[in-house]
Amino acid sequence: MSTGDAPRSYGRSGDRPERSGGRFGDRDRERAPQTVKGRLRAKARKKARKKAKKMFNRRKMCRFCADSNILVDYKDPRSLKFFITETGKMIPRRISGNCARHQRLVRIAIKRGRHLALMPYSTHQI
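Given the sequence above, the corresponding structure tokens read:
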């Protein structure tokens, strides 16, 4: 090594080169060329962000609270079929839109209907 090629050792002296740009680095610097796949991914992310901003989801309303004439009854499998999937699983409250009280009643009614063979446990055929 010659005298001009001393190893870099910043230590605690504060001789470290200045960094600008805050937490995420300097955003004004030139970026390395992206691959085709990287450009497509970035474009898809940008499109998804734009779509997420425009989307508005209507708040789900409990159908049993909205119409007090509708009753949860285990003897009526036609009305309970809206709360189970094609495979026989119960649809959760966050998807069905039921309130907690009526979701519990629906759950009990489905279990009673299954027990009395009015509703299927699953669609699996032997």
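DSSP finds five helices and no strands in the chain. Try to locate this feature in the token string yourself.
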